[in-house]
Task: structure prediction
Amino acid sequence: MKLSVHNLTKDFGGKLAVNNVSFSLSHGVYGLLGPNGAGKTTLMKMMVDILDPSSGEVLLDGVRIKELDAGYRDKLGYMPQEIGVYKNFSARKFLKYIAALKGITGKTADEKIEELLDLVGLKDVGKKKLGGFSGGMLRRIGIAQTLLNDPKILILDEPTAGLDPQERIRFRNIISELSENRIVLLSTHIISDMEFIAGEVIIMRNGSILKIDTTEKLLQEVTGKVWTAVVSHSELNGLKKQYTIGNIIQRSNGIEVRIVGNQKPSFPCETTKPILEDVFSYYFGGNVL
Result:
């Protein structure tokens, strides 16, 4: 199975949100990385056919998704940033309603709902109304909703937002298990989640693809370009103006800074092993996602 994006463009009245983007996805987990406004969500909405492109097309195994229509949606699981729920519905009732919309009814729906409630750790609160759920619990309902039709393609926009560390680990493991025979594309502000599960990363900037590569090769690219040093408060502001600072941590002996760049800083520092956040800092100057 191959999901292909060909010359996809979205122009909102003269503002290019996505500009002539092309790539192909097969089985596995792909991360979509870029700062706010890079065009990630717009791209995902076109890939799930809820937003029409200005030009270009999305194809599944060489067939335009517009032609596949319901056949494409049957294979698709989409989790948007904002999850709409009926707050007066219980978790089970809501999932049963969504299952019916997807054509899943009767015993098949009931069994799938129980399986997914257990998978996302909400089986014990299945009778509780969604209005009483925390933000993290609603994200988990969103994950369950996405998996109801056993999709072969998962498009996930900020799926771990609002989840605590234990929930994020659970979600990462779920996605890793599911990805064996599926295409998974996820966008997240939590880069460490992407680093753990994404085989390849698509980096976007200003609506265009900047780079597509494996996480290993992206990390190799910044190997030898990441340093740490402990500095004083008075030195920090000057360093911010001169270098790309990835992380700042208060230590008992001063402030530990993580610096990313092509040239070694001109003050005492140590080379350190890069992480995916360093790749982001390298390409985007330490901008916040």
